[in-house]
Amino acid sequence: MTHRNSAKSIILITALTLGSKAFGFFREVFIASSFGASPESDAYFVSITLTALISSLISTAVATTFVPVLCEIKIKEGNAAKNKHINNMINLLLLISVILTIAGWFLAPLAMKLLAKGFQPEQYAMAVSLTRTGLPKLLFICLGALTAYLQSEQRHITTAALGIPSNLIIILYLLILSNRYGIQGLMVSGIISVGCQGIIQFAAVKKLNFTYQPMIQLHDPYIHKALWLSAPVFISVAIYDINTVIDRTLASSLDTGSISALNYSEKIISLVLSVFIGAIVTVVFPLLSRDWSRNNTGSFLNHLQRGIHIILLITIPATTGLLILSEPVIKLVFMRGSFDEHDASMASGVLVFYALGLVPMAMRMFLNKAYYALQDTKSPLVYGGISVVTNVILNLVLVRVMSLNGLALATSIAAAVAAFLMVVPLCRKFPALQLKPTVVYGIKVITASLIMGISAFYIHKFTIVRMGLGTVAGVICFLITVITSTVIYIAVCYLLSIPEIKAILKPSFYSTKKEASREEKKQHGR
């Protein structure tokens, strides 16, 4: 593949991933519009926790670790053997999913007693019913094997685009049929959307001459290897999901709509992390891995430090903006239909305390990859475990003092603890890792962010007074505030000589200057 084709593929995959994330975000917006922060939405979000937890644990672990195994099979035994082993994995996962679905039907009441202990009888019954309705989603955990197959064949575009049609199905249901079939129909639309992913993936692998065969071999050495490799990924995913489960379980004992408020606020934080920080991690991780494999410690530390600086450059102003504009953000994104002022007030309060943890959450994401580049998968698991314990303890303490906001603050503090625990060993391992430049860099970014934040506060206040509180006026005021404050932030960063900003702005300045010089010479020539 040429450099040009490779660049095109990367751009296309990035665009499709962003499109998938955007459609997923719009899905949450329309759920908020249709059901608000209500007993029904609380029951829905709790009920999908069980199936989402199991699906993500198994599918993500298999999709991540089966890729190198499939590549090894192809090199050693060829495509025919590869098809045989992928069929074996698919059928084993199908067998497991059938067992889990049947078990889930009987265990749903017990699971909801644990996850939704604060629900009233009617809401509890609704959560059990929704859980049982959504259990067929588990039958599609075999899609993790198909994802691994496609990625092993360098067919990333299909997997990157899967979120677009699947989320579109749910969005269409919410727009057209939600008034008729309600929250149960929403769960069914989720099953159909996952089925759509399966159809697309099967169509994609068929083009690679894949043929399905109903076969199971329990003593397959490659399957054993893949399952062994999956263990650390499985635990890592579980640690993140356990935090979510704990938060929602405790929120079920609070006011109606608390679970929904947590979910909607978390989606905004997740969007920032997945789109911006995810892009940084994607670019820097291969560089860190390459440097370490070549024993180039100097280059490794340089890329590590630059990655940290870029994360600070993005997350500190994002935190400042969310702290100041939390309520306008929630209202702009979610407040329509059944989502009212009370729901917006609840969600914006949660968003403030989630935003406090945006920087450590991003650092934890990035440092996880740094440890993986060092081929150290145990340390992130240990620090993640400590983070979960911290989160549980703080949840139990802060929920009594701060109610729902305490759960969000506990998550943010736990993320900060994990990030700190990951930084300290790196500093000990690499004495050459310079903290002073990072501290100076952080102070500059904080200064620029504070100036931006003060400007945003007064600009938004001024525009609201001038334009009023209508929906259209609110959108215009918000856009004016964001654009103006972003320009101010970039200008202050430039004046403070922050290298990344100067690197972005200087080339265009010099190119403009050169073009002006050329034009002047032409004029003289005439």
Architecture overview:
This protein is mostly helical and 526 residues long. The chain has 18 helices and no strands. The chain is globular and about 65 Å long.
Keywords:
globular, 0% strand, disordered C terminus, disordered N terminus, mainly alpha, 526 residues
Regarding quaternary structure, what we see is: single chain
| Uncertain segments | 1-7, 507-517, 519-526
Proportion of helical residues:
over 70%
Radius of gyration: 25 Å
Distance between the termini: 47 Å
User: Number of helix segments?
Assistant: 18
User: Major sheet, described briefly?
Assistant: none
Percent in strands: under 5%
Principal-axis shape: globular
Overall SS class: mainly alpha
Total DSSP E strands: 0
How is the topology of this model organized?
Blueprint: H1 3-35, H2 39-77, H3 79-115, H4 121-134, H5 143-152, H6 156-161, H7 163-176, H8 178-206, H9 221-251, H10 258-293, H11 297-334, H12 341-355, H13 358-373, H14 378-402, H15 404-429, H16 436-467, H17 471-495, H18 499-525
Write a compact overview of the structure shown.
This protein has 526 residues and is an all-alpha fold. It contains 18 helices and no strands.
